[in-house]
Amino acid sequence: xxxxxPCPVARATELLGDRWVLLIVRxxxxxxxRFSDFQRSLGVARNILSDRLRRLVDGGVLALQPATxxxxxxxxxxxxxxxxxxxxxxALRQWGEAQRFAPGEAHSRLVERxxxxxxxxxxxxxxxxxxxxxxxxxxxxxDPG
Amino acid sequence: xxxxxPCPVARATELLGDRWVLLIVRxxxxxxxRFSDFQRSLGVARNILSDRLRRLVDGGVLALQPATxxxxxxxxxxxxxxxxxxxxxxALRQWGEAQRFAPGEAHSRLVERxxxxxxxxxxxxxxxxxxxxxxxxxxxxxDPG
Lengths: 145, 145
Description:
2 copies of one chain form a homodimer.
Chain A: H1 8-16, H2 19-29, H3 35-42, H4 46-58, E1 62-66, E2 74-78, H5 80-83, H6 86-99, E3 109-112, E4 137-140
């Protein structure tokens, strides 16, 4: 499928339709910056990690910066486009919480930094804030002409 | 990475960290049910499509049903766990719209079925409805003990 798909989901998945890419983005939100720390977190082969980090840099989601600690290491940091993936990571997390754990089985939790309260379940809404179910929505495709 | 990861994002990506899986789920929300219609929409090889459909059925996201039109075809339909992926698909779509199209470039749009109004941009929120940025959140990991 070419990059010129008129479907925003298709274009997003060009980069994001990969398990390691998604887990690297998750780790970046958790404050992981160094190659060796991604490797330790993910337990992934170096060549695969290198490839996925390169895709994320080429795709404008991560940027390379000199380390702030005075060492020679370079840091991977989320760009603005990368930070904009927060809703994607939260949606994956909340689906995983609801659908991929047994009742009562423990999992990590996403909370407000200040008070430790769990975030609300995120759902599509109208401009006025009413929840929209899939059945109450439709996709308007582009005119093929 | 074992299925026993305590991270809900990791468990979600076990199934969802794949481009074809995500596009099949997108098509299922758009009302695609038949193998041949998925194939036409995605332009993917039959063996890959078979594999991904099987993963989605095994993963409890799609279910096989006899066709309602009296033919011998079986239909793939979203289960409850599959329908719960709506926020994931919307998050991917909205990121794609914002980050993967040139300004003014046309794309398909997700609207309310009744009145054709575009949905709001979906963001993580507190229980009280205030938007939460990534920097204002943190992940509480499980005690390794």
